[in-house]
Amino acid sequence: MKNISRRTVDRALIYIRTLEHLIKEKRYLVSSKDLALITGISDVQIRKDISSFGKVGRPRIGYKTAELNKTLKGFVLQENVVHVALFGVGHLGTAILRYPAFNEDNIKLVAAFEKDKSKIGKKINGVRVYPVEMAPKIIKRTHADLGIIAVPASHSQEVADIMVLSGLRGIVNFAPASISVPKSVIVKDIDFTIELLSLFCNSQR
Amino acid sequence: MKNISRRTVDRALIYIRTLEHLIKEKRYLVSSKDLALITGISDVQIRKDISSFGKVGRPRIGYKTAELNKTLKGFVLQENVVHVALFGVGHLGTAILRYPAFNEDNIKLVAAFEKDKSKIGKKINGVRVYPVEMAPKIIKRTHADLGIIAVPASHSQEVADIMVLSGLRGIVNFAPASISVPKSVIVKDIDFTIELLSLFCNSQR
DNA sequence: TCTCAATCGTTCTAAATTTCACGATTAAGC
DNA sequence: GCTTAATCGTGAAATTTAGAACGATTGAGA
Q1: Cα-flanking dihedrals φ and ψ of residue A193, to 5°?
Q2: pLDDT tens string B32-43
């Protein structure tokens, strides 16, 4: 196994998503060209990515959807179910709790944390809402791997600190502010404002 | 003016966000090292990015926050207010409509579109909800530049087609499925599942 | 005034990533 | 069976991106 780059892994997740869709449609074979049409990623890039996980394609035929899916999942996900903790049960946090796609995928929301006492104790879509102070304990008990920040920017750093203390290894940060964490913790920032402005700037040229 | 890469623009948006925060705190000067500490981007990268917009820093001193902010905004945003149309007023769509940060920034949500008749005609956070069929007309009338897809994956392609027809130039796609659009239209995919799985995979090594 | 330390800005180097070119393989059709 | 066209897989070239090194500049302090 060659060393697989971060970008290849990210694209592999797109291939997996696409393959599962194709499998649901009873499609048994797919070529790199087909995948390129669907995903917008170049066929060469796709073949190169896939080949880094092994030789699973057949010239003139393409890839077997189920087999390729299994191969990719075996490498990048390894049968894991990712346990995720959510911080902030406002509008966005609630939308995340109700996000339908998590159910079928390898993701399980194990707990939500919130400051507002009126929300604590409730169950939203099967996920219990706890006070933030209980986070370290609950996160250890539920073996959460990752956390989501869906609190206002003004509180994102303190929440991030709690997440790090609790032992989370990765954070998706929806707050529109940078957070500081040890470099052993990976952060993915998703700022709606920046995403839109970036798109706008890049559509202007 | 040198040609400015997409990544530099994206980072510039982070600098702007950071600078506006510093300005609110009455901070007048900032060095590339300070910005590096806050944003996690290296100081060399920051200086290089900034220098591509002109010489605005002073050795031994750093950058004036207000001046740098103005310079960056001048290049990447040019006083524009970006008009955005939202498709899908479910949990996620509603959260986006209520997203507080849009108010102060250069983004204006001009219309929302939804299939479910019970939601049509309502106003959420000042934004009117229209039936999807009216999209081309409303989008032209409101001069929307960009669109957000917050509908289920099963309907994302048909919504994308309407958006393209309506003349939108960029799309943020929250549906967990790839969409096909002409290459003149820029798409930014944000799939919560993939973001989490990517983080998990990359925290495993 | 002179030295020093901090910081910017730029050029060169290195690494990562994508694209290109092309050989290898395979099944279909004549 | 032979040819052909489609497709995979891969090594090399090209491009993009980040990083390192370093000179240039500036204000502070002796």
Answers
A1: -60, -50
A2: 999 999 999 999
**Contact status of A203 with chain B (Cβ, < 8 Å):** yes
- Best CATH choice for the domain A6-75 from the list 2.170.150.20, 1.10.10.10, 2.60.40.10, 3.40.50.10320: 1.10.10.10
Residues 122-151 in A contacting B (C-alpha not used; CB under 8 Å): 145-146, 148
Region at A108 (left for phi over 0; alpha for psi -120 to 50; beta for the rest):
beta
- B93-138 pLDDT tens trace: 999 999 999 978 799 999 999 999 999 999 999 999 999 999 999 9
What CATH superfamily is the domain A82-195? NAD(P)-binding Rossmann-like Domain (3.40.50.720)
Q: Are residues B80 and A9, on separate chains, in Cβ contact within 8 Å?
A: no
**Within an 8 Å CB–CB cutoff, is residue B6 touching chain A?**
yes
Q: Which of A10, A169, A202 faces B203 most closely, judged by CB atoms? A: A169
Model confidence over A39-75: pLDDT tens digits?
A: 999 999 999 999 999 999 999 999 999 999 999 999 9
* Among B residues 32-71, those touching chain A with beta carbons less than 8 Å apart: 37-40
- Our CA dihedral for B196, B201, B204, B205, rounded to 10 degrees, sits at -130
Q: Is A105 on the interface with B (CB under 8 A)?
A: yes
Q: Regarding the domain delimited by B6-74, which CATH topology (the fold level of the hierarchy) does it fall under?
A: Arc Repressor Mutant, subunit A (1.10.10)
Residues (pLDDT < 70) of chain B are 1-2
What is the C-alpha separation between B9 and B6, in angstroms, rounded?
A: 5
